[in-house]
Amino acid sequence: MGRRVLITGLDTFWGGRMAQALEAKPDVEMILGLGTKDPRVPLERTEFVRSDQKYSILSRIVRATQVDTIVHTFLETNSVAVPSRVLHEINVIGTLNLLAAAGARGASVRKVIVKSSTHVYGSAEQDPAWFREEDHRTGPVRTKLERSLLEVETLVRDFADDNPHLDVTVLRFANVLGTDIITPISHNLRRRLLPCIAGFDPLVQFVEEDDVVRALEFVTAHRVPGTYNVAGDGKLPWSEVASIGGAHLLPLPPVRPRLFAVPMERLGRIQFPPEMETLVKYGRGVDTSALRQAGFAYRYTSAGAVQSFARANNLRRATGTSDPEYRYEQDVEQFFRHSPAVVRGVDT
Amino acid sequence: MRSIVRRLYDPMYRYWFRVEWEGLEKIPTDGGALLIANHAGAIPADAPAIMHGVETELGRPVYGLADYFFRTLPGVGTMWSRTGGVPAHPDNAYRILHDQKQLALVFPEGTKATSKTYSDRYRLRRFGRGGFVEIAMRAGVPIVPIAVVGAEESMPILFRMPKVAKALKLPYFPITVNSLLLGPVGYVTYFPTKFKLRVLDPITFDVEPGLERYSRSRVMDEAERIRAIMQDTLHDMLRERRSIWFG
Prior knowledge:
The structure holds two protein chains of two kinds. Chain A is α/β, with parallel strands linked by helices. Helix content of chain A is 39%, strand content 18%. A seven-stranded parallel sheet of chain A has the order 3-2-1-4-5-6-11, with helices on both faces. In chain A, strands 7-10 form a two-stranded parallel ribbon.
């Protein structure tokens, strides 16, 4: 029997990309996606179920579909995108319900994969150059995003301890850049203005969006329980990110940079979420040797991820086209998938 | 950036401090080694002198491990990391010494040495908690002590102002002779003292590398032994010195 996979956050960037990647795998028998909104990417055979962000119906779905793998991509790692209260609901309460469903008595789940972020390490002056998975952050937890991600990881760790028969994998991704994804950093680069802090030029690490999906696929296909950092090789100075990405640096004062950043944010010129403030001061690097030893191979380095973004951005600037928008039509999709009138196995 | 700074610093090294080395051949030309030295002067001039010296004379880069406090200063932190400085963290030191097999430079006394007043000159402070010994043991590399004479007098501290330091969030706020003579310019101007550096025999430890922990007593004993050797060497060098300015 093939694998039966449940993906959370099908309507988000990562859920959609992950579903597309899994559809290409013949050994994945069934893909089920949960989302609060319609999927934003065309999908061939993924089943979509609309749910609220807290997944109150999840345990019923898990029981009914007998999924063996849960890929939890629906963790918000961008505090610009949602208000902090929603952030808490999505990250902490969502994960709580998800784990409750996965760990229920008699549940068919064998594997849980959680997409976390290297934001859990924070950025502080006392940091080592490269964080290993077992290292703890050195700075205090200041932002709501970091607090919620740490809380999620604690939940997941407790869950793994309580359910030793399950394979629980946590992947901590570095800042993502690539052809399509929109993060505060890529937003700023697209607008040609990258905030920095005067007198600081930290070394930062990136991971390309394809490598993110490939890493998620890799841990879905292999048995690699534990926590792993996922980031491209090497680090590059913040100023170089700006120059490769074709943006100017916007220096903010070292003391209370927020005071100056907020008006610019209000004007819509930049995005400067609180977790970016320490990052652009002290940078961050994570040691990726653990996942590499488990057998994963990266396609992009940190600088490669920035270049990949820059190439896609050049094209966007030259042609002026935005990405084609996909609209999910519930009835049409249902028709193509389930109607006896559709002749299956024919290339349409 | 690194080469520009090196070129700018070179005249300072050659003509201002007239740095003179003794026993430079004792620094290994390949493989990792932990260089340690005594630290002195309000804004210590010994770190760049050693880093620049080893780089130009031996053609090997030296990674200076400095207090993470420097990272918090605008400009200074970036400058330091671009010219070969690394925040002092056991993991960072281990990676440089063991994984990359490079030279690292550390001042075991830390800021206790640079904040001491002129009356305490050439009296070595406590060698931290012996962390440098533990790192060298773990990385399986020798420790190469370097005794520095001349840095103490290049920017001597008369007294410290703890309240000002606290207000400015600095580790210490020194009133130096330079600053009394030259005002604020004095904080960036050294006296042209003669620098003499003597490299001592490398110290190797007969322990298994790669362990998580080493015997605390052994670590502290080794640290104290190295401290005693360096203190003796400093006294020896000072006995032979006839002038602060000409050596």
